[in-house]
Specification:
The chain is 36% helix and 27% strand. Strands 7, 8, 9, 10, 11, 12 and 13 form a 7-stranded parallel beta sheet that branches. The protein has a 6-stranded mixed beta sheet with strand order 1-4-5-6-3-2. It is an alpha/beta fold. 31% of the residues are buried. Strand 4 and strand 5 form a beta hairpin. The two termini are 27 Å apart.
Length: 246
């Protein structure tokens, strides 16, 4: 079943209006007809709708069941991803959104090979946000996670300090007990920050700065993981733990 996002002003008295690129997609690509059903998400709530009619620039649909689907995790996850090479970040965004993250911030770290000019940051972020929206639709999310423009590690730590918990997977962390302990502390409604290093990992100074600001070092096992694997594994572990225990 398809899923589309609208703003609150596009919902009124049980009638939703879908406009813009989704209007074109529904009418000219999917070629939907009157009576076909799909999901409409607004302000974090998903409704089951039936297509009522097309106007010049809108799809008019009727809500037939409110609060139809709740796919939100019981916690909020902010992924701070060390800026990787090539198009790896696109894969990370896609999978992280599917797994339930709320926000993603690319971070320029000491060992990041990629350096983006201000103009490229804006263009890249627009593309990353479009990927997040596409993944949110595919995975039936009730919100579109926000992808922020890349920031420095110092600024990332400053943002993360306002959250309830900072997790930093690090190959030098001892055993899996630390990860088990951190997961056991997570409670419903918490905002959890996850820091993942780029290719080459974290610089020692970054690890120390994170520790000084309350980060918890955890291990993901005995093997050295690629940055995209570490991101997906960490967010996946948080998803599974919270959905099974909270």
């Amino acid at each position: 079943m398809f899923n589309f996002f609208i703003s609150p002003e596009q919902l009124n008295s049980g009638i939703a209006q879908i406009q813009g690129k989704d209007f074109n997609h529904i009418k000219n690509v999917l070629r939907m007809e009157k009576g076909e059903k799909f999901l409409v998400s607004v302000s974090g709530v998903s409704h089951l709708c039936s297509l009522k009619e097309f106007t010049t620039d809108s799809v008019i649909c009727e809500i037939i069941e409110e609060n139809y689907l709740d796919t939100a995790l019981p916690i909020n996850i902010h992924l701070f991803q060390g800026l990787p090479k090539s198009d790896k970040l696109e894969l990370i965004i896609q999978k992280a959104v599917e797994l339930g993250v709320t926000e993603i911030t690319p971070v320029e770290m000491a060992r990041s090979i990629v350096k983006l000019e201000p103009k490229k940051k804006k263009d890249k972020t627009e593309r990353w946000q479009a990927i997040a929206e596409s993944s949110a639709k595919q995975s039936k999310r009730t919100i579109i996670p926000t992808v922020h423009e890349p920031i420095t590690f110092k600024n990332a730590i400053s943002v993360a300090k306002s959250t309830d918990l900072i997790i930093l997977p690090f190959e030098c962390a001892n055993g899996m007990d630390a990860l088990k302990s951190v997961l056991a502390e997570i409670k419903q409604g918490m905002m959890v920050s996850v820091f993942i290093g780029p290719e080459g990992g974290f610089d020692e100074s970054e690890v120390q700065t994170a520790i000084d600001n309350g980060a918890r070092l955890v291990s993901l096992g005995k093997r050295i993981l690629r940055t995209e694997t570490a991101s997906i594994l960490t967010v996946g572990a948080l998803m599974l733990h919270t959905e099974m225990n909270l």
